[in-house]
Q: What sequence folds into this?
């Protein structure tokens, strides 16, 4: 931290921009949530494009509205959502590494395709780890650029290690077309059935996997509510227990909630199962009103998909 | 410790790509906790750095492992082996009791009167009843360092507020159902507030971070306002704090 220098200054904050590493581990038993990027795919690609290792902190920009000025020469990449970003007013190409000169202005506007863009800088953003992680969780006041869980505000600085700030990535490095997801297409979310799946009525199970679900506007980093035909479960509540990433819980109103990175660590609603990590990523890019479907998958298949994804970022 | 698992348990349930839910018991009981704390320790030893996280709670332990290094099948084999030889922590019954000083007062505990009315006893009797028991920490959750403790005397059992408060002051000591807790930080909350502790429940700079850990034994110790302030408590009443 001592050798970190200013890389970018925030000239307009936008609604929600948070620094995220791979998440906070080993402290969930204390009620401390996981945090980390809600779209692992976009976050991992942004880092990879500038030559950063898995786990390097990158900026999660939700919805847009953020404006940053470079305070030194940098190599950066934007992946994930297209938020109509511009560099000195010119459209910025996503999914590729590019040079950003001191004084240049990077601005995110509003969502064109997807909801969350990830900005990585070669060398990685530097911030004080809190409980072992830089992951920013606003509700808990932990992590982020200042260690206090704050979203970026006007006048804030993002810092980087100077040894690597202007190097690391090939500026021509680009993600292959198959990695660039069109988030406007209907999403099919892979779900691993859980232990309470048998407690749902047959009709509800049929609906769960055959109906189309609408992403509700009650959606944030804690969870995304899905609106559709109410699901009926014989269990209405349970003794609270640990909740994994992507758990799809069904409260008594029958409307499922997919729980994401900032979820509470324990809860007592029955669950259909858990979305795979990549399904969570896909859901996190959906805007309210978008349609999604749930698709049951076998653990072996989901594991193979996840290992294939991770193998790119070794 | 003669108690064994219920006949259908323990059970391993799938919990996503990288997790197993170990279900040890089917009811909340203080006697569950020595089994759970033992299982936490055994998992740490058996999984080493392939372990990502553990979430113990009341009757279960959620085990999260690294799916790049361990298949769910291999993780399951390890858990089965470990459960077969699990024995409860023997020293749990006489583990040291952590004491939480509490200033019980209507100004910081607006539901003292409600509990007294529900129980048909005086406020002083409510305070005595709440503070004479030794509680066990069943789980941490809701917020960092928020410990769910039980079990509260049946006479003090009280439902949550119909409308949760948007802002409960840090240190607030509360009761809901037959559980009790202290709020580590300012959060929304729907529990019945009966007092306030000056103790710092969660501190990112402290070893272990959380004052209370799953399995701990805890006792609330009544103190006067002067002592509360001397220990660094914020005495401002609910409406101002």
A:
């Amino acid at each position: 931290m001592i050798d970190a220098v200013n890389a970018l200054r925030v000239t307009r904050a936008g609604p929600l921009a948070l620094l995220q590493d791979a998440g906070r581990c080993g402290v969930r038993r204390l009620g401390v949530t996981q945090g980390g990027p809600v779209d692992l795919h976009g976050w991992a690609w942004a880092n990879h494009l500038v030559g950063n290792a898995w786990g390097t902190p990158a900026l999660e920009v939700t919805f847009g509205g953020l404006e940053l000025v470079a305070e030194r020469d940098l190599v950066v990449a934007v992946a994930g959502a297209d938020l109509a970003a511009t560099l000195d007013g010119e459209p910025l190409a996503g999914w590729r590494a590019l040079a950003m000169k001191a004084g240049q202005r990077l601005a995110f506007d509003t969502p064109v395709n997807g909801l969350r863009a990830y900005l990585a800088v070669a060398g990685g953003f530097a911030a004080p780890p809190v409980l072992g992680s830089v992951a920013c969780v606003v509700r808990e006041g932990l992590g982020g650029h200042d260690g206090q869980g704050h979203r970026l505000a006007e006048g804030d600085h993002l810092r980087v290690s100077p040894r690597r700030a202007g190097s690391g990535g090939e500026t021509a490095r680009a993600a292959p077309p198959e990695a660039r997801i069109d988030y406007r297409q209907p999403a099919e979310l892979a779900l691993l059935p859980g232990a309470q799946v048998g407690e749902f009525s047959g009709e509800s199970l049929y609906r769960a996997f055959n109906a189309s679900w609408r992403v509700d506007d009650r959606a944030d980093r804690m969870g995304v509510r899905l609106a559709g035909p109410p699901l009926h479960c014989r269990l209405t509540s349970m003794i609270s227990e640990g909740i994994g990433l992507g758990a799809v819980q069904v409260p008594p109103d029958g409307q499922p909630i997919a729980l994401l990175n900032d979820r509470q660590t324990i809860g007592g609603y029955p669950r259909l199962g858990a979305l795979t990590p990549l399904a969570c990523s896909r859901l996190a890019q959906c805007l309210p009103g978008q349609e999604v479907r749930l698709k049951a998958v076998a653990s072996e298949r989901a594991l193979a998909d996840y290992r294939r994804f991770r193998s790119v970022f070794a | 410790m003669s108690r064994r698992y219920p006949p259908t348990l323990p059970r391993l349930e799938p919990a996503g790509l990288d997790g197993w839910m170990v279900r040890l018991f089917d009811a909340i009981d203080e006697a569950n906790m020595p089994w759970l704390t033992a299982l936490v320790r055994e998992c740490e030893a058996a999984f080493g750095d392939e372990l990502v996280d553990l979430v113990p709670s009341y009757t279960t332990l959620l085990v999260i492992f690294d799916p790049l290094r361990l298949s769910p099948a291999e993780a399951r084999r390890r858990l089965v082996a470990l459960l077969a030889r699990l024995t409860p922590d023997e020293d749990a019954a006489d583990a040291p009791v952590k004491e939480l000083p509490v200033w019980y007062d209507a100004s910081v505990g607006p539901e003292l009167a409600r509990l007294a009315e529900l129980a048909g006893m005086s406020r002083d009797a409510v305070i005595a009843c709440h503070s004479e028991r030794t509680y066990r920490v069943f789980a941490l959750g809701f917020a960092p360092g928020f410990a769910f403790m039980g079990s509260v005397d049946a006479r003090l059992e009280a439902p949550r507020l119909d409308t949760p408060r948007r802002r409960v002051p840090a240190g607030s000591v509360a009761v809901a159902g037959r559980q009790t807790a202290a709020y580590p930080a300012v959060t929304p909350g729907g529990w019945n507030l009966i007092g306030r502790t000056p103790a710092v429940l969660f501190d990112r700079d402290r070893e272990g971070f959380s004052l209370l850990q799953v399995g701990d034994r805890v006792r609330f110790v009544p103190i006067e306002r002067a002592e509360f302030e001397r220990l660094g408590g914020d005495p401002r009443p609910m409406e101002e704090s």
In short: The radius of gyration of chain A is 20 Å.
